[in-house]
Amino acid sequence: MTFLRRNYGWMIVALLAVLPLIPLLKILTKEGESNIGMLYHISGEFAIRWMTAVLTCTPFFILFGVTNLFVRQTMGIATAIWSLLHFTLFIWAEGFLETFTQVNYVAGFMATLILIPLFISSNRKSMKRLNAIWKKLQRFAYVAILLSLIHVAILEKTWLIYAVVVSLGFMIRIPFVKEKIIRYRLRKA
Ligand code: HEM
C-alpha cells in the first residue's frame, strides 16, 4: 500500500503513455498505404502532447507548489519514446534519407536528436552525476519544442494550442513573474 501511495503518480503517467500503443499496434498489423498517415498522426500527436506536458511541470510547481520528480521523468521518457517511435515509423515507410528532403522533417529530426541526451539523463543517477550541467541540459527541451512546433506548423497540423501552453509556461518561469506568484501563493497559504 505504501508503495502504491508513493508511486501512483508516475505509474498513471506510464499507463497513459503506453495505452495509445494498442490502437497503434492494431493499425501496424493492418496492410495499406492509408494506415501510415494514421500512424504518423497518432505517434506525432502523442510526441508533442507529452513534450508540452513535461514543459508545464515547472510552471505547475510555481503556480500550485506541487512537484514530483518521478512523474516529470516519466513524462520525459514518454516524450522521447513517442518521438523516436514517430521517427522510426517514418524511416520504415520513407527511408532515412527522406528526412533531409524537407525543412519540416529536418526540424523534427533535430528535435529528436536533442531528446536523446535528455532521455538518457532522465534519471536520478545522471542528475546527481551531472549536477549543474543537468539543469543546463534540460533547458534544451525548449529548443526541442520550438523545432517540433516549426515541424508541425509547416505541415499545417495542430500546433497553436501547444504554442500557447508552452508560451504561458515560459512567461510564468520569468524570474520576476515567478517570484511574484510564489510570494502570493505563500502569503495565501
Ligand atoms: C526526424 C524526425 C521527424 C520526422 C521525419 C517527422 C515526419 C512527420 C511526417 C511525415 C508527418 C506526417 C505529415 C503529413 O501527414 O502530411 C508528421 C506529422 C507530425 N509530426 Fe513529425 N516527424 C519528426 C519528428 C517529430 C517530433 C519530434 C514531433 C513532436 C514532438 C513531431 C510531431 C508531429 C505532429 C504533431 C504531426 C502531425 C500529426 C497529425 O496531426 O496528423 N514530429 N511528422
Please sum up the structure shown.
This protein has helices spanning 2-18, 21-29, 34-55, 57-64, 69-94, 103-120, 124-130, 132-138, 140-154, 160-173, 175-188.
Describe this structure in words.
With 189 residues, the protein is mainly α. The protein has one domain (2-188). The chain has helices at residues 2-18, 21-29, 34-55, 57-64, 69-94, 103-120, 124-130, 132-138, 140-154, 160-173, 175-188. It binds protoporphyrin IX containing FE. Protoporphyrin IX containing FE is lined by residues 37, 40-41, 44-45, 47-48, 51, 83, 86-87, 90, 99, 105, 108-109, 111-112, 148, 151-152, 155, 157-158.
On the 0 to 100 scale, the average pLDDT is 93
Task: Name the helix and strand elements from N-terminus to C-terminus, one letter apiece.
Answer: HHHHHHHHHHH
Number of domains: 1
The total count of helices amounts to 11
What is the overall shape?
Answer: globular
Topology:
Blueprint: H1 2-18, H2 21-29, H3 34-55, H4 57-64, H5 69-94, H6 103-120, H7 124-130, H8 132-138, H9 140-154, H10 160-173, H11 175-188
Helix pairs in contact: 1-5, 3-5, 3-9, 3-10, 4-10, 4-11, 5-6, 6-9, 7-8, 9-10
Task: List its traits.
binds protoporphyrin IX containing FE; mainly alpha; 189 residues; single chain
